[in-house]
C-alpha cells in the first residue's frame, strides 16, 4: 500500500520537474532518474520514459 502511494507520488514528480527545472539537459536527467526509481519500486518492471526534450518542454 505504501509502495503504491510512493509510486503515485513519483509519477507526479515528473510534472513538478517540468514546472521547476529550466535546463533541458537537467530536466531529462531528472526525469530518467525518476523513471528508473519507479521501475525499481514496481518490482523490476521496465518503465520507458519516452521524453523528447525541446526547449525545456516534453513533446510527444
Please tell me about this protein's structure:
The protein is mainly alpha-helical and 60 residues long. It has one domain. It is built from 2 helices and 2 strands, in the order H-H-E-E. Strands 1-2 form a two-stranded antiparallel ribbon. Strand 1 and strand 2 form a beta hairpin. The longest helix is centred in the N-terminal third of the chain and has 19 residues. The chain is elongated, with a radius of gyration of 12 Å.
What's the alpha carbon Rg, rounded to whole Å?
Answer: 12 Å
Low-confidence stretches: 46-55
Count the strands? 2
Which series of helices and strands comes N to C?
HHEE
Helix content: 55-70%
Instruction: Give, in spatial order, the strands making up the sheet with the most strands.
Output: 1-2
Concise description?
The chain is mainly alpha-helical and about 60 residues long.
What's the arrangement of secondary structure elements?
Elements: H1 2-20, H2 24-41, E1 52-54, E2 57-59
Antiparallel strand pairs: 1-2
Helix pairs in contact: 1-2
Summary keywords:
single chain, 60 residues, mainly alpha, 62% helix, 10% strand
Amino acid at each position: 500500500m505504501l509502495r503504491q502511494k510512493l509510486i503515485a507520488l513519483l509519477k507526479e514528480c515528473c510534472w513538478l520537474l517540468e514546472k521547476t527545472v529550466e535546463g533541458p539537459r537537467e530536466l531529462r536527467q531528472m526525469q530518467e532518474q525518476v523513471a528508473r526509481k519507479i521501475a525499481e519500486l514496481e518490482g523490476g518492471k521496465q518503465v520507458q520514459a519516452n521524453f523528447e526534450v525541446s526547449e525545456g518542454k516534453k513533446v510527444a
